[in-house]
User: Which sequence fits this backbone?
């Protein structure tokens, strides 16, 4: 696929005339998916206080595939938890799709976690007493109640991930790679736009890692934003951007222009700009 | 989330921990069983008292010697032991004059043994009375006849059903001889099982022997030591009858304490009062067992919350709200207590069926027994399930997910 040409098709014309530059600035002012400003997170009090995040700034646009790297204890997981609304920062401001997270009531946060965010954990975190299909349908159960259609949908997602024959297995009957695919299926159940993966391949061998990463790539290609914490430098080839963290701050922030994912991302970004521009024109009329 | 979803989630997780769920339910089952059996039995006793007073003795007036009692009510208490009598033959005549012949039966209570051949029962009450007694007390004969006043000199005896079956083969009892206090009597009748919880007769009719007054006074040296006089009043006139008998007896008995006149409804009332007291005490003890069951629920739920912290974390991560978690855990407690309630109630009715077979106590199905049997466990579930559920809902997802990492 010649993504670069497609990219230029959309991206270049926006910078050709004054008015189009104006649109472009309009768009760049448009709010990103994730917007963290001066985020701080402390644990404990007094002498035992540890700083997990020390005034971190991070902006993530829609459609990016961000890999977060860094030594253990640098705050990667804490950052992911804050982004996923599981944790609250002690300082700074976090805007998720231009909503101030600090001002969201807990029920609203739960709803956002349910509909807009999919979590993938290193240790899969499936509920051991539920079957594979029930695990996958769980987010649907919480948002839309019980319905046989949810089972159908869960089944569809599982089939896409090659787990159709394992639907009524219990999680302990699966291999690690299969469990992680089930976890991915669960993360996708409500069609969220943001996927947060905390070392998704940390417990898997290289073959299974590859399968999982291919899945994430596929999800990314469909226009979703992915944040992935990882220790494994090999996985960077899947990302469009890599963030190195150190002592609770961003050490280096690199766009991986040579990666396929980057092309996907920029293609997606420009598409979004196109559609926004059109909308804007329509509104002016 | 609809309640149905919460119910299904709760149900699933209860099934997942089957053994623990069943044991927890068992605690509630026992509690509800005890409470319900007390209620059913008490309702059955009340019902049979009502049946007896309404259907058989609504117009009965009983005169007893009151002993030392000031209220006279003690003469009718189930705990009555004193049998010394202050009623005389003169009193009987007077009462008969007031109430009319055929409506009055004296009852003289004679202790001692009753035997037949080799068998001999000690401490059997033999009642000396007249021909009107079965009609007044509403006792029916299973076979044979009651002795008439004309033949009162003959050595005839009528036996209560249990006494008869103990002494003789009831199929061939008629015409057999029994010895009462050494004297020989011919059996001329056997009573139907009376099954009367209120002892208006002053004796367990099923276990008594009945002889005529003329035979009775042979054992007392010719004096009529009348234990009580039962009087049948015209329908609705029992109160007037009670008053006129009292007035008549007051002439000869200056001391109020020497006699007591009571209507059967009053006696039933006092019996019912007794019963209510006993029921209340029994219910208090039964409630304690239900309380223990409730604490068991709470204990298990707390363990379950601790054990499932990680699961709660996962559920929150995929978007369960506090309320949804709370609902799930509360419903788990409610399902357990409600199931326990149903099973306990069913068992209680099973047991009451057995009691019914053994003691012919009526089985009462009334809405309030069901309401208590199912409502109380639900309240217990709410009370004892709420705290664990709140604890579950308040779990911080981060802490919960970090468990056992």
Assistant:
């Amino acid at each position: 696929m010649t993504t670069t040409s497609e990219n230029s098709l959309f991206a270049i014309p926006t910078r050709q005339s004054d008015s189009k530059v104006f649109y472009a600035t309009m768009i760049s002012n448009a709010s990103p998916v994730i917007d963290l400003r001066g985020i701080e997170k402390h644990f404990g009090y007094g002498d035992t206080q540890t700083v997990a995040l020390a005034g971190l700034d991070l902006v993530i646009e829609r459609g990016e595939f961000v890999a977060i790297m860094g030594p253990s204890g640098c705050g990667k997981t804490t950052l992911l938890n804050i982004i996923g609304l599981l944790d609250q920062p002690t300082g700074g401001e976090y805007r998720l799709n231009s909503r101030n997270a600090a001002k969201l009531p807990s029920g609203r946060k739960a709803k956002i976690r349910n509909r807009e965010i999919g979590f993938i954990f290193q240790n899969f975190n499936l509920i051991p007493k539920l079957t594979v299909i029930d695990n996958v349908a769980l987010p649907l159960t919480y948002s839309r109640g019980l319905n046989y259609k949810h089972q159908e949908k869960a089944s569809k997602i599982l089939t896409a991930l090659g787990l159709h024959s394992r639907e009524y297995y219990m999680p302990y009957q699966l291999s690690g790679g299969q469990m992680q695919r089930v976890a991915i299926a669960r993360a996708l159940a409500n069609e969220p736009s943001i996927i947060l993966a905390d070392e998704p391949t940390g417990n898997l061998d290289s073959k299974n890692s590859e399968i999982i990463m291919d899945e994430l790539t596929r999800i990314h290609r469909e226009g979703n934003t992915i944040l992935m914490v990882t220790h494994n430098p090999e996985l960077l080839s899947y990302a469009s951007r890599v963030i190195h963290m150190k002592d609770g701050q961003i050490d280096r922030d690199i766009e991986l222009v040579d990666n396929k994912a980057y092309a996907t991302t920029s293609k997606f970004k420009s598409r979004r700009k196109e559609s926004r521009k059109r909308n804007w024109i329509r509104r002016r009329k | 989330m609809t309640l149905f979803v919460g119910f299904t989630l709760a149900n699933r997780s209860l099934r997942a921990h089957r053994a623990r769920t069943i044991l927890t339910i068992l605690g509630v089952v026992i509690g509800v069983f005890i409470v319900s059996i007390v209620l059913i039995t008490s309702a059955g006793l009340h019902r049979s008292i009502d049946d007896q007073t309404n259907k058989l003795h609504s117009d009965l007036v009983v005169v007893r010697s009151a002993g030392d009692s000031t209220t006279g009510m003690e003469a009718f208490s189930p705990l009555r032991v004193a049998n010394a009598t202050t009623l005389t033959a003169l009193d009987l005549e007077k009462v008969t004059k007031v109430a009319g012949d055929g409506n009055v039966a004296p009852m003289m209570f004679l202790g001692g043994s009753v035997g037949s051949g080799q068998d001999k029962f000690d401490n059997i009450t033999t009642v000396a009375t007249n021909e009107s007694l079965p009609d007044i007390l509403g006792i029916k004969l299973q076979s044979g006849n009651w002795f008439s006043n004309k033949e009162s000199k003959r050595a005839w005896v009528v036996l209560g059903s249990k006494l008869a079956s103990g002494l003789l083969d009831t199929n061939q009892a008629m015409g057999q001889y029994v010895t009462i206090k050494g004297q020989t009597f011919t059996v001329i009748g056997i009573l139907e099982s009376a099954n009367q919880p209120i002892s208006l007769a002053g004796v367990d009719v099923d276990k008594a022997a009945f002889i005529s007054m003329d035979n009775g006074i042979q054992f007392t040296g010719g004096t009529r030591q009348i234990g009580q006089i039962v009087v049948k009043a015209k329908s609705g006139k029992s109160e007037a009858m009670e008053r006129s008998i009292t007035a008549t007896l007051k002439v000869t008995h200056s001391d109020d304490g020497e006699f007591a006149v009571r209507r059967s409804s009053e006696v039933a009332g006092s019996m019912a009062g007794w019963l209510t007291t006993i029921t209340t005490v029994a219910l208090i003890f039964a409630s304690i067992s239900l309380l223990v069951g409730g604490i068991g629920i709470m204990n298990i739920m707390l363990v379950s919350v601790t054990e499932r912290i990680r699961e709660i974390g996962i559920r929150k991560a995929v978007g369960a709200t506090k309320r949804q978690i709370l609902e799930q855990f509360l419903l788990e407690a409610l399902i357990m207590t409600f199931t326990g309630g149903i099973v306990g109630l069913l068992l209680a009715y099973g047991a009451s069926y057995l009691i019914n077979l053994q003691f012919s106590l009526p089985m009462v199905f009334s809405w309030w027994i069901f309401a208590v049997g199912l409502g109380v466990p639900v309240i217990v579930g709410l009370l004892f399930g709420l705290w664990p559920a709140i604890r579950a809902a308040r779990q911080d997802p981060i802490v919960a997910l970090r468990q056992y990492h």
